[in-house]
From TrEMBL:
The keyword Hydrolase applies. Belongs to the peptidase M14 family. InterPro entries: Peptidase_M14 (IPR000834), Peptidase_M14_domain (IPR050753). This is CBPD Carboxypeptidase. The gene is Cpd_1. GO terms for biological process: peptide metabolic process; protein processing.
Amino acid sequence: GSVVASYPYDDSPTHKPTGVYSKSADDEVFKYLAKAYASNHPIMRTGKPNCPGEEGETFQDGITNGAQWYDVEGGMQDYNYVWANCFEITLELSCCKYPPTSELQQEWENNRDSLLAFIEKV
């Protein structure tokens, strides 16, 4: 996991594992929506999730193009965009896939304003 808002495309024509910006026709809309979420999240907006084992990983403005981060061939986000005209971003909300119950209230606090801002934009 990480703490970042990722947007299409997750796949790239070259299928290089990382580092290829794969721009969609609606790239500016996706960046706008991703920034709406990330800019209201206290960790995500820093662009430095500081996840164990990935302490040096950074994301400008707390967002990333999926394929630039890592290439995912056949992902649901891209499929829904191409075949169903569904605009989706992927929200990585924690370094830990299953945070302990004791941390859930803090996770809610971290994401509440982001969720409301995102809903307002949508």
